[in-house]
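User: Quick sanity check before I run a bigger batch. Here is a single chain. Can you write out its predicted 3D structure?
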Amino acid sequence: MIIGIPKEIIPGEQRTALIPSSVDRLVKKGATVLVEAGLGTSIGIPDEEYIKAGARIEKRSTLLSSSDIVLRLRKPPVEEIALLKKDSIHISFLDPFNEKELVAALSRQEISAFSMEMIPRTTRAQKMDALSSQANLAGYVTVILAAERLPKIFPMLMTPAGTIAPARVFIIGAGVAGLQAIATAKRLGARVEAFDTRPVVKEQVQSLGAKFVEIDLGDTGQTTQGYAKALTPEQLEKQRQGMIKVCAQSDVIITTAQLFGRKAPVVLSKDMLAQMKPGTIIVDMAVESGGNVEGSKLNEEVVTANGVRILGFGNLPGRVAAHASQVYSTNLHNLVEEYWDNDTKTFKLNLEDEIIKGALITHQGQIVNEMVKNAK
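Assistant: Done. Predicted structure follows.
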């Protein structure tokens, strides 16, 4: 089989889908690997490294039209779908709940399209879970961005000139990104508190040395995939009221609350912002899906009337593009290897497999994923 990897063309995207070590693994499996010239330039990997790993440099249009499997990071432009071979496999992030036109185009072209967001959160699928691998790095980045802008240091210092108190950091949401943010802030010496609607994560928060903020919201729980369930408007208001005191005394607040396939909930209202200290730094990790902070703007730094700074930067993993590419590349080659038939040197689509059922969106001219098919 021919596996093709085009360059990412979204403006500002520094990550790449596959690095040479993954190319080497796929070539050793018997695949022919084509890469577009300059694939790894943004992270310091010259074309020569891909050639050494066994890849062949090919122009974009030829690569797309001749590949049996296309591996990407970002969703493809709709206009490129017609270039893909019919019955070929396409694997990337797709944002399938919001990109209906793209999903329809993939279906019309009879592409077997996998969405990396839809990899199930199961033990077997952990090595392919790109959402988690990217969120982990994003959690780290949020703390570094906040520390850079905060006019204080994070750790406590005992000096001849007096004691410097540690910065107070509040993490809202203790999923993969939130837990990494907690760990990073603790490493920098901050006093860390965290809240999550799922009481089950309390032990994880405490194991990292943070204090778990308890707010009684009634029945919340989590989905079978481990995601937080959407709160009712009444529960959201209870949550805001319960967090006001913690927010008012925090130096840094990081919001990570997202709902899979839906708009992010607003967890910090303008009324709450008005009660915070001047100079407080807020990082809204959910800004790309609507935002957790009222008034946050994508790729902007907003300063409120009382001096609170809201960072709404998108593509946080892209700020550590080399390592983000490394882990995503590993997710991809693990997915391909999981279904690679060593005898025929082909990718076998077992439609009854739980991972394929979860992540396959279109196949043989149909939308086959039930969640996407039934999404309103």
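The longest helix spans residues 130-149.

User: Great, the batch can go ahead then.
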